[in-house]
Each structure stands twice: as structure tokens, then as C-alpha cells.
């Protein structure tokens, strides 16, 4: 018996339909501030990747004759620091440090958050109670203090710093993931997946997690500047990456000591830092609005 | 006839709600022969949906199957270990849900949704699975299957999605297809097309359990009917017999409120009152508060299914006492 084929009316309906992702992209693009922030962040990332090509000097190139010269000096666009190192070059290289730490920390944080959140939310019951008890304990523990303790104990390499930041900043995201799991696991398509014979891991990874990408992306976009701030904060306390590796925090810290004589040493790193943080915040806001199901 | 494909006995499913317990399915029994189609009919909340989900143990966490057995192909689905049961789901027993809009994973392409499960169940390799998916899509009337395989559910219209979901259930060539209100979310022309697809599967020898609230839909291809009310079967019987001479007053009420069947009359006769609150069921027949024929006895003493003819059972005091039910103007 022939079954009637799809009618033309059905096909028209298709063109109007849009995926959640396509809708989010369209909404994001309407937000000019968020788009500008995204472009700015991409430029920073490019600068970090191609730092050796962009920076006119190396991080340890000292020019004693031109120590602490101001902005616009010949050969040193943004001036130099106390031992004559080019501030522009060091800023470009410090982007690398910031990026490595942010990406490393967020990778660890996201991985922990996803594993804990999915397990707790999906299995529920005792496992959920146990895992959430741990996250609650970590949640009330001041994470900055935890970072300081970890860095003090394990040293100041970039790796220990981002590991320390990572393992002290996954808690909020884990709760977010768990909440998403609780929201999604009662959805009909998850039940349909089980009815097709999918096991727990398949359900978690292919049915639940991909549908929680929006909130995770938003969380990530706030987590990255969080990690950068944490590293800068460590540097201000003298616990940042080992010199001479440049980092925003250590440059700002150095700048504060000379602020009355050579304000450019504080101005440029702080300014770029502040603008970067704002850009991440605006981009994160844009993402959050784009994925907001309420609209 | 050969041994039944599915034999459900005394199935009970409960939900804990605060202090009280809801008996969503309260001692349901039925059997299904190979190639037979059975309709489970009832209003929302009558437990029809939970009863079939219980067979595959796909009930919400606060639910519990407290007793009963469901022998499928000789093995008890309710006693089986989870991995063994998982191997039956989506393989020998497939499910079609009410609303494909919400029952398809929005992040997977149709190819994944139509082939993944048969690859898990090792019914086919990747390329063979793809071919089977294309065949299944063609058989449900989806045009351009190769193109559709690359699409996501949101790129399909409601009717196409429903076809795709049925195709996904058919790919594994199940022995039993459970369709839970497969046409409720669709408009009338699409309903008919979807029912045609199911009817055709039945002709090919597939057993079908159809969950519906609409006897008009059930009549379309089902051989037998189970009418459920408040978690219990109140009447069972062959489709034709049941339509011609409904036994239970609830069945009569359902028939009189069904569009197609009641079409000879000027107006439909709705059943008065609302479906019962499952947490506070009356001690007697659960339908008694809405029943035009209810007597004192109906309100205090429950009646179980009593045979009234070949393959016919009704759970009603009035029927088992031999009272005439159709004095109310049906001819």
C-alpha cells in the first residue's frame, strides 16, 4: 500500500524552522557590543599566538639606556620598565601567559564540572547527595584562599597555577551542569533514547550534554576572565608566574611601585586588563541573552 | 494459536507522592498474539501510558513496579536484568511517542537517530544500517530519504517528524511496536496517514499496542480493546463486539463522546464529571461517582473483571448482575 508522500505545505514549514544554535547566533549578532567584544577578544588571541612576530623586542631584551622612558619614546611605543624592557612587547607576551592559564584552568574546571554534574544529576540518590555535599563544602571554602594554598605548596609554574585555579573554580559550573541534567533528563527525547536501548553513558553524553551547551558556553565565557583575574591577583601578591615570564599581574604590581614617577608602567597593563575584562563580560552577557530561553 | 508474544499478568505500578501512594496501574493483565493489534483506551491519567512504559521499565524515578510479570517471547521483562532489557528496547520492542517534536533529540541528525540503536544492538553495520534507515523512511512516506538523513529534527515539519520517529522505530524490525498516542499531536489528515502506516505494519505481521483516548482511532486497525479507568481494566474484548455492545458504562460513555462513531447523532454526549483523583479513589468502583447507573453497592464494593462472553470481560456489577445497560437510547 502506498502511503501519501509529504505535502508541499509541510515543506514550507521547514524553512521557517531554525535550530536553537542558529537562533542563538542570530540573537548574538544583533548585540553590537557583544560582537565588538568578541572581535576584540579574537584579536587578543591572535596577538598571543603570533606574539613573537608582533612584539618588536623579546621579553628579556633590556635597554638600560632607555629605562623607564615614557609613552611614545622612539623605539618604545608604550615606554619601558625599570630595566628598560619594552612594555608593548611584554604586554603582548603576557597575553600568552593569561591565555595559557585561562584555557588550562577552564579545561580542568569544565572537565571536573561536567563529570561531577552529570554523574550527580543522572544517577541521583545517594551519589547525588554525596557529590553535592562535596561541592557545597568547596563552595563555602574561599576559593582564592585555596588557590593561594595550592600555589604556595606546589610552586609557581604556569601549570601549577592553572591547575590550582581550575580545581578551585569548577564548583559553580558543576551545580549548573547538574541543574541542566535534572531539567533535561525528564524530557521526552531522553526517555525516547532509553526506549531505543541507550545506556547511561550514551544518554549523558549524546542526549543530555549537547543540549546543555548554551549554559555551559555562558559559564565558560565568565570563567575565562575569572581565571585571568585570579592569576593577576596571585601576581599582585607575588605568587604569580615566575619572572621573567611576563604576566599582567606582575606588570601591574611593578607599575604600582613607580606610579608617581612613571605612570605609563601602570597605565598600559591596567588599561588593557580592564578593557579585556569588560570585553569578556559584554561577550558573556551577549551569549547569555542569546541562549536565554525566556525570549 | 501459537504462544502469545506478550503476556502481561497482574501488573502493578505505583508512584509515591508525598505521604500517599498512587496506584497508576492496578493489576492489569492482557495478552497479545503475534501479528495482533491491541488498543488500550482511556482518558488522561487512566494509567494506559504508564502501563506500557512499565513493560520496558521506563517509568519515572519515583515510580515502582510492585508486582506482576510481563512475559515477552517467553522471558519476563520485569524480572530481567537491566542490560538484557536494554537489548530488547529499541530492538524487539520499539516505541513511538506522542509528540515527535519533543521525542527526538534536537542535537542529532536523522541518520544518527535512525541508525544508532540498531548499531548498538548489532543488528547491522554502519552502511547496512543506513540502507535500512532509507528503506524505513521510504516505507513511511518520507521523500528524499538521503537528503533527510543529514537533517536535524527542527528542519522537518510536524508530520515528517512523526514519520521519522516511526521510521526510527521500524528500522530494527521489532516484533512489537508500542505506539503511545501516535496521532494525538497531529491534524486529521496526517492522523489518517500515520494510522495507515501502522495498519500496513500490522499486515506485515508486526504486533502493535496502541495507546489512545480515541476509540475512533483504535477502531481503525486494532483487533482487541482494553478500556482502562483509574489504573484498572474495566472492559476487554474484540473490537467489533465492544463497539456493538459496550458492557461497562464507561465504555458506553467513551463511545458516545467519540466523534466518528457518535456521528449519527446530533450531538456528542460527554461523560459527566472529571477523571478521578488517583490519590483518593473511592472504595468501590472508581467510575461510580460519574456513572449514571451506579447503585449503593458500586460505591462500596469493587468489582473485578468478569467474563460475559467469549473473550469478553467487564468489571461492572450492573453487567454481571445481568442488568440491561442500553435503556438509554442507543440502538
Written overview of the protein:
The complex is a heterodimer of chains A (295) and B (331). Chain A is 71% helix and 0% strand. Chain A has 14 helices and no strands. In chain A, helix 2 (20-30) crosses helix 14, helix 3 (32-49) packs across helix 14 and helix 12 (213-236) runs parallel beside helix 13. The longest helix of chain A is centred in the middle third of the chain and has 37 residues, at 87-123. Residues 1-17 of chain A have low confidence and may be disordered. By secondary structure, chain B is of the alpha/beta class. In chain B, 32% of the residues lie in helices and 23% in strands. Chain B is built from 13 helices and 12 strands. Chain B has an 8-stranded mixed β-sheet, with helices on both faces. In chain B, helix 8 links the parallel strand 7 (176-180) and strand 8. The chains are: A mainly alpha (295), B alpha/beta (331). At the A-B interface, helix 1, helix 10 and helix 11 of A face helix 2, helix 4, helix 7 and helix 8 of B.
Amino acid at each position: 500500500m502506498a502511503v501519501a508522500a509529504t505535502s508541499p505545505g509541510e515543506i514550507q514549514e521547514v524553512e521557517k524552522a531554525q535550530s536553537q544554535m542558529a537562533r542563538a547566533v542570530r540573537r548574538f549578532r544583533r548585540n553590537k557590543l557583544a560582537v565588538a567584544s568578541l572581535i576584540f577578544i579574537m584579536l587578543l588571541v591572535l596577538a598571543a599566538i603570533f606574539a613573537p612576530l608582533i612584539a618588536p623586542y623579546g621579553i628579556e631584551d633590556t635597554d638600560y639606556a632607555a629605562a623607564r622612558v615614557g609613552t611614545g619614546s622612539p623605539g618604545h611605543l608604550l615606554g619601558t620598565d625599570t630595566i628598560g624592557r619594552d612594555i608593548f612587547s611584554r604586554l603582548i607576551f603576557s597575553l600568552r601567559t593569561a591565555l595559557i592559564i585561562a584555557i588550562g584552568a577552564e579545561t580542568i574546571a569544565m572537565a571536573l564540572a561536567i563529570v561531577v554534574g552529570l554523574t550527580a544529576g543522572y544517577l541521583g540518590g545517594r551519589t547525588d547527595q554525596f557529590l553535592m555535599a562535596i561541592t557545597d563544602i568547596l563552595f563555602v571554602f574561599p576559593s582564592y584562599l585555596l588557590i593561594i594554598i595550592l600555589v604556595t605548596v606546589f610552586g609557581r609554574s604556569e601549570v601549577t597555577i592553572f591547575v590550582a585555579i581550575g580545581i578551585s573554580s569548577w564548583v559553580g559550573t558543576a551545580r549548573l551542569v547538574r541543574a541542566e541534567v535534572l531539567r533535561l533528563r525528564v524530557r521526552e527525547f531522553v526517555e525516547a533514547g532509553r526506549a531505543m536501548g541507550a545506556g547511561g553513558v550514551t544518554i549523558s553524553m549524546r542526549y543530555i550534554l549537547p543540549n546543555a551547551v548554551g549554559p555551559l558556553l555562558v559559564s565558560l565565557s565568565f570563567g575565562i576572565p575569572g581565571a585571568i583575574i585570579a592569576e593577576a591577583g596571585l601576581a599582585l601578591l607575588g605568587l604569580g608566574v615566575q619572572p621573567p615570564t611576563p604576566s599582567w599581574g606582575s606588570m601591574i604590581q611593578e607599575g604600582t611601585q613607580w606610579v608617581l614617577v612613571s605612570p605609563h608602567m601602570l597605565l598600559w597593563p591596567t588599561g588593557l586588563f580592564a578593557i579585556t575584562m569588560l570585553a569578556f563580560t559584554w561577550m558573556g552577557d551577549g551569549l547569555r541573552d542569546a541562549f536565554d530561553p525566556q525570549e | 494459536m501459537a504462544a502469545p508474544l506478550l503476556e502481561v499478568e497482574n501488573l502493578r505500578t505505583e508512584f509515591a507522592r508525598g505521604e500517599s501512594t498512587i496506584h497508576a496501574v492496578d493489576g492489569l493483565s492482557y495478552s497479545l498474539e503475534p501479528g495482533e493489534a491491541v488498543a488500550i483506551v482511556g482518558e488522561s491519567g487512566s494509567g494506559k501510558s504508564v502501563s506500557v512504559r512499565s513493560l520496558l521499565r521506563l517509568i519515572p524515578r519515583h515510580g515502582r513496579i510492585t508486582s506482576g510479570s510481563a512475559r515477552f517471547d517467553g522471558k519476563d521483562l520485569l524480572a530481567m536484568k537491566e542490560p538484557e532489557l536494554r537489548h530488547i528496547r529499541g530492538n524487539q520492542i520499539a516505541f513511538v511517542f506522542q509528540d515527535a517534536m519533543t521525542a527526538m533529540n534536537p542535537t542529532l541528525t536523522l541518520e544518527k537517530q535512525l541508525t544508532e540503536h540498531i548499531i548498538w544492538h548489532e543488528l547491522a553495520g554502519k552502511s547496512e544500517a543506513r540502507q535500512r534507515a532509507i528503506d524505513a523512511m521510504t516505507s513511511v512516506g518520507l521523500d528524499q530519504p538521503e537528503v533527510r538523513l543529514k537533517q536535524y529534527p527542527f528542519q522537518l515539519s510536524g508530520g515528517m517528524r512523526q514519520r521519522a520517529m516511526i521510521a526510527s522505530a521500524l528500522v530494527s524490525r521489532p516484533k512489537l511496536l508500542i505506539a503511545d498516542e501516535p496521532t494525538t499531536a497531529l491534524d486529521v489528515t496526517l492522523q489518517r496517514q500515520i494510522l495507515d502506516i501502522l495498519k500496513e505494519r500490522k499486515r506485515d505481521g508486526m504486533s502493535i499496542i496502541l495507546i489512545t483516548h480515541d476509540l475512533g482511532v483504535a477502531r481503525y486497525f486494532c483487533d482487541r480493546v482494553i478500556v482502562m479507568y483509574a489504573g484498572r481494566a474495566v472492559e476487554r474484548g474484540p473490537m467489533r463486539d465492544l463497539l456493538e455492545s459496550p458492557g461497562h458504562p464507561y465504555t458506553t460513555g467513551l463511545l458516545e463522546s467519540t466523534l466518528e462513531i457518535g456521528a449519527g447523532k446530533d450531538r456528542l454526549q460527554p461523560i459527566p464529571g472529571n477523571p478521578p483523583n488517583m490519590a483518593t479513589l473511592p472504595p468501590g468502583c472508581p467510575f461510580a461517582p460519574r456513572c449514571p447507573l451506579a447503585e449503593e453497592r458500586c460505591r462500596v464494593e469493587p468489582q473485578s473483571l468478569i467474563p460475559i462472553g467469549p473473550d469478553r470481560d467487564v468489571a461492572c456489577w450492573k453487567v454481571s448482575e445481568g442488568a440491561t445497560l442500553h435503556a438509554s437510547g442507543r440502538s
